[in-house]
Amino acid sequence: MNHDELRHWSKIAADWAHDYHLDLRDRPVRARTPRNAIRDALPPKAPELPESMEEIWADFNRLIPQGMTHWQHPRFFAYFPANAAPVSMLAEQLVNAMACQGMIWQTSPAATEVEQAMMVWLREALGLPDRFTGTIHDSATTATLSAVLTMRERALNWHGLQAGLSGMPVLRLYTSGETHSSVDKAARVAGIGQQNLVKIPTDDSLSMRPDLLEAAIAADRAAGMMPAGVILCVGGTSVGAFDHVAELIAVAKEAGLPVHVDAAWAGSAMICPEFRLLWEGIEGADSVVFNPHKWLGAQFDCAVQFIANPHEQIKTLGLRPSYLETPDQDEVVNFNEWTVPLGRRFRALKLWFLLRAHGLEDLRNRIRNHVNWSRQLCALLSELPDLEIVTAPALSLFTFAHRDGEAATLDLLSRINDDGRVYLTQTRHQDRLVIRVQVGQFDCTEEDVMMVHTVLSELLE
Ligand code: PLP
């Protein structure tokens, strides 16, 4: 394909995208494809000779769309959203067209500088103080790994980077059981080890208990271990738990430990000042991650990490081999030095387009609607005699179960998803299987949300 043909097919693809989104509501949200059907429909080997674009396009249409779970479906209430505002898709198309790689300032100055500006725009939008600067990662998992690696090296006074962990003191991290599994992964990958990620019990509000955090740090020190950092949860994935940030940061600071906050989902809601109570004290954190690709509307992938002292992270992750050196390297920001991968996509462009085309007020209204509709839906479901609300809405996430127990809850969930009009997923909360409902699709309407009630009423009849 040459660029003339690319233009031709791009127009066809744009029309296809328009029509795809137009009738999304008519499609089942979750894919119904039998296991391996798509893989088995593909030839076992790559072709030796070129195939026509017409054939490739026909096969795409025949095989792919029905093999997709539709994340942009307005009645996708599973997991957390991966919202893609149309304008952020447009920005991604432009990034694709340039196919740039922004590993250092020199390789794409605009990518670096728009990213710097967007970090300031988002910091202000979320009400964070200007002690934070930031960068964009592919995922919250990578951001948390970067923060944990920095905690590790800070604790070891940056000796681990050279010497490895053999013979080093046993490092300890502290979090609660409500925090996302990306923290477990970070402890594993950073060589700290899952067993040294201490899960501090939570109180009735699902916040880590500060007294137990303090006691665990003291006990570990007394036993000769080396506490390295605390990871807090602002909007847990399972049921939307919120740690009491101010109190817990106070304990960590008293113990001389850095704090990373995982607000991957709930961070977007902080553009609404009325929700900021939920992370009161956040200004004392050392690192905060939130995913604009979840609730805000920036097409996947886009995870923002705000960092109070980037020099510690740069000291941990930054390398300057001679082939990456530039004469101005001390005057510019080379964002690869802040993150694990060297290569970087131009992710800031979609933030720039999104924030300008919608304005913060429109983005706030969407999130406020989601929270209100989630509360209304929860109230309606609480009136269905077979159902019990297990956790009340935390922002726009709540859970429920069938009163007849786990088998009935599982059966109900599979009937909901086989029906196809809405998509919900499960979690386990305090040893009980529950069904999660999160309201957060960029273009969902009140009617879409209330469809969960319609489907459940019909299925339970
Ligand atoms: N933290 C929370 C609270 C999440 O809900 C998720 C994913 O849903 C993650 C972290 C991991 O996000 P990512 O897929 O960007 O690594």
TrEMBL record:
One of its GO terms (molecular function) is transaminase activity. The keyword Transferase applies. It comes from the Bacteria. The modification N6-(pyridoxal phosphate)lysine is found at residue 294. Its cofactor is pyridoxal 5'-phosphate. GO terms for biological process: amino acid metabolic process; carboxylic acid metabolic process. One of its GO terms (cellular component) is cytoplasm. InterPro entries: Aromatic_deC, PyrdxlP-dep_de-COase, PyrdxlP-dep_Trfase, PyrdxlP-dep_Trfase_major, PyrdxlP-dep_Trfase_small. It holds the Pfam family Pyridoxal_deC. Keywords: Aminotransferase, Decarboxylase, Lyase, Pyridoxal phosphate, Transferase. Belongs to the group II decarboxylase family. This is Aspartate aminotransferase family protein. It comes from Falsigemmobacter intermedius.
